[in-house]
Write a structure and sequence with these properties.
375 residues, Rossmann fold, five-stranded parallel sheet, 16 helices, 54% helix
C-alpha cells in the first residue's frame, strides 16, 4: 500500500519553467523542486519512494571516485544529480523543504560531537533571515558551519552525507515518522551545499549547467519516456521452450550494442534460493529481457511460476521502458495471462515468429532507445 506521504495531493503545486530572461541564480529552492517536479513528475509517478531513494544512494556513491581524484569536471554533474534526486524526492513526498530546512538549521542547528566552536567563530543566528534562493542557502549553511568546515575535507563531507543517505533509506523502510525522514532529507541538502562550498562551486550554476530547463537525455521539458535511464547490464531469462538459436540471437544482439548480459542459469522455481538468485541478478541490472515459453508447450509449472515472478520483479525494480518481454504466441498461455492479468502495470508481450523476426524486433527496440538518448 502506498505511503500516505506519497499519496498527498499536489494540485496546489505550481508547474513552472524558467521565465524568459531570468537567471538560474534567481531561482528559489522551491523553484528548483517544482522544476524537477515538472520535468520528471510523470516518470516518478510510476516509481516508489524506495526506488527513488535507491537512485539517490547510487548518485552519492558515484561521487566517491571523482572526489578521491578531485576531478571537478566529473564531480559537478554528479553533484547536480544528487541535488536533482533530493528535489524529486521532496516533490514526490510533497514536502516544503525550504521550511523544513529552516526549522532544522535556523534554530538550534545540529553539530557534530567533535565540534566545539568558540563564540567568536560562531555566527549568531540572529544575523540570518530564512534563505530564499539556492545561492542564499549555500551561503547560509557555509557561514553557519564555518568553524566545522575549516576542519573537514570534501571527502569527509561526502562520507557524512553517505551516512545520512543510508539513514534515510533505513528510516523510510521502517516507516519512521515523517519528521525523522524529512530531517534526513534536509541534512542531505545541507551536505550537498557544504560540498559545493568546500569545492568553491556555485551549486545553482552546476545544476543549471547539466539540467538547464530540460531532461539532459531526451531534451524534453517534460520527460515521460521512462527510458532515459541508460543501461549497460541486462538481465536475461529464457523459457523452457526457447531454442538455442533464439538464445544466441538475443545474447549476440545485446553484445553487438555493447551491453553485458546476466543470464539466469536456473529455469525452474524449486526453492527460495532460486528467487534470491533471480532478484540478485535483476538488482544488478539496468534492463531486462524475458523470453517466455511458447503457448501450448509442455513445461513444468515451477518454470512458468518463475517467469511470472521474474517478469513482475523486472517491472517493479527496473524502468518499465527498459524491460522487454517476448513470446512466439501472445494470444494464450503464460504470455496472455501476463498481458491480461497485469494490464494495469502496462506489461506488454511482443510476439515474434522465428529467430530472424526476434532479432529484428530486438534491434528495433534498442535502436529506438539509442535514438531517444541521442546516441
Amino acid at each position: 500500500m502506498e505511503d500516505s506521504r506519497e499519496a498527498s495531493s499536489r494540485d496546489d503545486r505550481k508547474v513552472m519553467s524558467i521565465p524568459q530572461g531570468s537567471s538560474h541564480a534567481d531561482l528559489t529552492l522551491d523553484d528548483w523542486i517544482n522544476k524537477f517536479g515538472r520535468i520528471y513528475g510523470k516518470r516518478h509517478e510510476k516509481h516508489t519512494t524506495e526506488y527513488m531513494i535507491a537512485r539517490l544512494v547510487e548518485e552519492v556513491a558515484e561521487l566517491v571516485d571523482p572526489m578521491e581524484s578531485q576531478d571537478i569536471e566529473k564531480i559537478s554533474p554528479n553533484l547536480a544529480d544528487v541535488f536533482s534526486w533530493v528535489c524529486s524526492i521532496s516533490y514526490k513526498l510533497n514536502l516544503d523543504l525550504s521550511s523544513l530546512a529552516w526549522k532544522k538549521y535556523g534554530g538550534n542547528a545540529p553539530r557534530p560531537t567533535w565540534s566545539t566552536p568558540s563564540s567568536a567563530s560562531q555566527p549568531a543566528l540572529s544575523q540570518f533571515s530564512q534563505p530564499n534562493k539556492l545561492g542564499e542557502w549555500q551561503d547560509f549553511i557555509s557561514k553557519l558551519y564555518r568553524a566545522e568546515n575549516a576542519r573537514i575535507t570534501p571527502m569527509n563531507a561526502l562520507i557524512a552525507m553517505m551516512k545520512d543517505v543510508g539513514d534515510l533509506a533505513m528510516l523510510h523502510r521502517k516507516r519512521a515518522s515523517q519528521d525523522q525522514v524529512t530531517s534526513k532529507i534536509a541534512a542531505i541538502l545541507a551536505w550537498t551545499l557544504t560540498i559545493s562550498q568546500l569545492l568553491k562551486l556555485d551549486l545553482s550554476g552546476v545544476v543549471f549547467a547539466k539540467y538547464d530547463d530540460h531532461c539532459p537525455v531526451c531534451k524534453k521539458q517534460i520527460c515521460d519516456t521512462d527510458i532515459c535511464h541508460p543501461f549497460s547490464t541486462i538481465f536475461v531469462s529464457f523459457g523452457e521452450s526457447v531454442s538455442d538459436e533464439e538464445k544466441y540471437v538475443v545474447l549476440d544482439t545485446f553484445a553487438s550494442f555493447g551491453y553485458r548480459a546476466l543470464v539466469d542459469p536456473t529455469s525452474e522455481l524449486r526453492a527460495t534460493k532460486d528467487l534470491s538468485s533471480s532478484l540478485d541478478l535483476i538488482n544488478n541490472s539496468d534492463a531486462a529481457c524475458v523470453l517466455l515459453s511458447a503457448a501450448g508447450q509442455r513445461s513444468p509449472e515451477s518454470a512458468q511460476y518463475k517467469q511470472v515472478f521474474e517478469t513482475l520483479a523486472c517491472y517493479s525494480i527496473l524502468s518499465k521502458g527498459n524491460v522487454f518481454v517476448f513470446a512466439k504466441d501472445t494470444s494464450k498461455g503464460l504470455p496472455a495471462f501476463l498481458s491480461s492479468a497485469f494490464e494495469s502495470e502496462k506489461i506488454t508481450v511482443t510476439a515474434y515468429t522465428d529467430s530472424k523476426h526476434l532479432k529484428a524486433s530486438l534491434q528495433a527496440r534498442l535502436e529506438m532507445l539509442n535514438s531517444v538518448r541521442g546516441k
